[in-house]
Design brief:
The protein starts with 7 loop residues before the first helix and ends in a 5-residue tail after the last helix. Helix 8 runs antiparallel to helix 9. By secondary structure, it is an alpha+beta fold. The protein is built from 25 helices and 24 strands. It folds into three domains: 216 residues, Heat Shock Protein 90 (2-Layer Sandwich); 129 residues, Ribosomal Protein S5, domain 2 (2-Layer Sandwich); 258 residues, MutL, C-terminal domain, dimerisation subdomain (formyl-coa transferase, domain 3, 2-Layer Sandwich). An eight-stranded mixed beta sheet has the order 7-6-5-8-3-2-9-10. Strands 11-12-15-13-14 form a five-stranded mixed beta sheet, sandwiched between helices. A four-stranded antiparallel beta sheet has the order 18-19-20-24. The protein binds adenosine-5'-diphosphate and magnesium ion.
Length: 671
């Protein structure tokens, strides 16, 4: 079974494809031959040897193509004095050793058809020739067909018997010794060493089934052990990623696995949690058919997938592997093979974007619940229901319920807030109405005549003692648990099966409002709008007036109606119903500012999303609002159901889990 692209299995596949009978003792390799001239002209020309790391890359490529299971790289002086790459692959028969060093001689590609569907790392037949021309190179190799190894000195051409087990050792000494000008461009040994290590690291991340070791000046600097080839792919990858990049990378990422177009494209790997994003793009690894690539299509797709959960210039971490029918990708674009060209870049873009988006959309709370492997919630909690029964009565299906496609037309038709006055309990109720919509129908809502009732707005501190007596059954079945208190009007505390949950209520509510707004726009429906009884007017800049006029259609789609009242005044006549309780003027100003910034003609989805995000931020509950326990619980239930609810629209986390072991550790319990 083919577990890894570019593996020995593919070498076998090629051997099976060829009409030339394979060597009896080494069925997996074909003889090295000169490429025909017409093929040479097809191959992307250029220099492949820039620095020691490029030599390392080419030699490790070769070892992998030879089916190696263990590759050892030894370096002296950052690779400038010596690069030796040792493998246990198929080896090269002595009569072919001189051929291997010839330009355009390869065992991997024969004709145009093979060039167009390359499955090996190499295919140009140039690397060894190029390396040998700027260094003192020797090849020591042994196949299973010979009774000893043979050593070829590239400079002298001398070929003699030597000792070695099956496999190949390429030794490259004194790189650029004959071209001092190029040697001058090399950096310090430490820098060159770092590049060499990075080069091996890229290979290692693609091939968990191969062991790698790097020695520098006689010291082992890196070692990654081979995982058994039958290890399940995502597990093997997670282990290798942890070995190479650190356990943190795995802990802070989610597995990606999606198949597209009936298997023509597979995207797998790991996508970092938005939380793990960094200021530098130094942990972004992309592969196409086992080859490390820098590809704009993939990186742009990844960026787009994170757009909605990462703001600013934060760089996500990821290791993504695109497996694609070799006929759909051209690897013969760049001499160093670091770039590829997709026959249909759109399909790859969409595949990568969707694969990551799907991974990131699932609220982590749901994963928590799955991990905890809890029995379904019990509707009738033992121990008797108190007056706070709603906290126990969330059937499990409720959590899996899809988001409502659209909001009801209006939530709070009654109140017309003044922008300056503090919100009354009634107004706050109205603001929270959207939250209650999809929350489990709690008893208190049934008792109430409508959202205007103020009983739910009892400050949390007063309700808390009674709530604390609720049996913990519901808390265990709800991923984010049962709200217990509000801290300084900013955080909600909850108890769940794992321990304690802390929620940034503004951040969380912001995401919920945003996702609801998006769900509405997704249907190309204008956002439900609510006319203001008294239009809110404000002194506007000429630019604002112009933007309001130019974008009236877009504004309408967004549920806003902003019209000139006088040459220097704008009037907000309608706002999105979901934001009816906010400051209409402030909302209008920020949306107009966004509209001016984005290209007027095309209000693309992205700009829309950003505008929606602005609106959501504006509409989300602010800090220092007292919430009742019911409202806190409603918020938690909504978070469990809302996609991407682990981050607010600015990419900040909305909640944190403190597990019991973590709490115990804080208090040195059990030590
Ligand atoms: N480590 C190795 N083990 C077995 N064969 C090798 C090894 N390195 C190079 N070769 C052989 O030498 C040929 C030339 O290598 P190279 O110049 O890198 O070109 P390419 O890899 O593009 O074919 C390869 O096609 C392969 O047959
Ligand atoms: Mg090669």
């Amino acid at each position: 079974m083919r577990l890894w692209p570019g593996g020995a299995a593919q070498v076998h596949k090629i051997a099976a494809m060829t009409s030339t009978p394979a060597l009896p003792a080494s069925p997996s390799r074909r003889p090295i031959q000169d490429l025909p001239d017409e093929l040479i002209s097809q191959i992307a020309a250029g220099e492949v040897v820039e620095r020691p790391a490029s030599v390392v890359r080419e030699l490790v490529d070769n070892a992998l193509d030879a089916g190696a299971r263990q590759i050892t790289v030894r370096l002296l002086a950052g690779g400038v004095r010596l690069i030796s790459v040792e493998d246990d692959g198929c080896g090269i028969p002595p009569e072919e050793l001189p051929v291997a060093l010839r330009r355009h001689a390869t065992s991997k590609v024969r004709d145009l058809q093979e060039l167009e569907s390359v499955t090996t790392m190499g295919f140009r037949g140039e690397a060894l020739a190029a390396v040998a021309s700027v260094s003192q190179t020797s090849i020591l190799s042994r196949t299973t067909a010979t009774d000893s190894a043979w050593l070829l000195d590239a400079r002298s051409g001398e070929l003699r018997r030597a000792a070695r087990a099956q496999g190949t050792t390429l030794e490259v000494k004194e790189l650029f010794f004959s071209t001092p000008a190029r040697r001058k461009f090399l950096k310090t040994d430490a820098t060159e060493l770092a590049h060499c290590i990075e080069s091996v690291r890229r290979h290692a991340l693609a091939r968990p089934d191969v062991g790698f070791a790097i020695w520098h000046e006689g010291k082992l600097v890196e070692q990654w052990r081979a995982l058994p080839p039958d290890t399940e792919r995502s597990q093997a990858l997670a282990r290798r990623l942890a070995d190479v990049l650190g356990q943190e990378f795995v802990d802070q990422s989610l597995p990606v696995q999606r198949v597209f177009h009936n298997g023509a494209i597979t995207v797998y790997g790991r996508a970092g949690l938005p939380d793990a994003a960094r200021s530098r793009a130094d942990q972004q690894y992309s592969y196409v058919n086992g080859r490390f690539v820098r590809d704009k299509v993939i990186s742009h797709a990844a960026k787009a997938a994170y757009e909605d959960v990462l703001h600013g210039h934060k760089q996500p971490i990821y290791a993504l592997y695109v497996e694609i029918d070799p006929l759909r990708v051209d690897v013969n674009v760049h001499p160093t093979k670091i770039e590829v060209r997709f026959r249909d870049s759109r399909e790859v873009h969409q595949a990568v974007k969707h694969a990551i988006e799907d991974t990131l959309a699932v609220p982590r709370a749901q994963l928590l619940a799955a991990q905890a492997d809890m029995p379904p919630a019990v509707a009738d909690a033992p121990g008797g229901a108190s007056g706070n029964a709603p906290a126990q009565a969330a059937p499990q299906q409720q959590l899996a319920m899809p988001l409502p496609a659209a909001l009801p037309p209006s939530f709070a038709p009654s109140a017309t807030p003044s922008a300056t006055a503090p919100l009354t309990p009634t107004q706050m109720q109205a603001l929270w109405a959207p939250l209650r919509e999809a929350a489990p129908p709690p008893a208190w809502q049934v008792q109430e005549s409508g959202p205007a009732s103020s009983t739910a707005a009892v400050p949390a501190t007063e309700a808390a003692p009674a709530e604390a007596t609720t049996p913990p059954v519901a808390a265990q079945s709800w991923p984010l648990g049962r709200a217990v208190a509000q801290i300084h009007g900013v955080y909600v505390l909850a108890e769940n099966a794992q321990g304690m949950v802390i929620v940034d209520m503004h951040a969380a509510h912001e995401r919920i409002v945003y996702e609801r707004l998006k769900a509405q726009l997704g249907n190309d429906q204008p956002i439900a709008s609510q006319p203001l009884l008294i239009p809110a007017t404000f002194a506007a800049t000429p630019q604002e007036v112009a933007a309001a006029e130019a974008h009236s259609a877009s504004l309408h789609t967004l549920g806003l109606e902003i019209a000139p009242f006088s040459p220097k005044t704008l009037a907000v006549r309608a706002v999105p119903a979901v934001l009816a309780q906010g400051d209409a003027v402030e909302l209008a100003r920020s949306v107009l500012a966004e509209l001016q910034q984005h290209e007027a003609s095309t209000l693309i989805a992205r700009a829309r999303h950003e505008i929606l995000a602005t609106m959501a931020c504006h509409g989300a509950v602010r800090a220092n609002r007292r919430l009742s326990l019911e409202e806190m619980n409603a918020l938690l239930r909504q978070m469990e159901q809302t996609e991407r609810s682990d981050q607010c629209n600015h990419g900040r986390p909305t909640w944190r889990q403190l597990t019991m072991p973590e709490l115990d550790a804080l208090f040195l319990r059990g030590r």
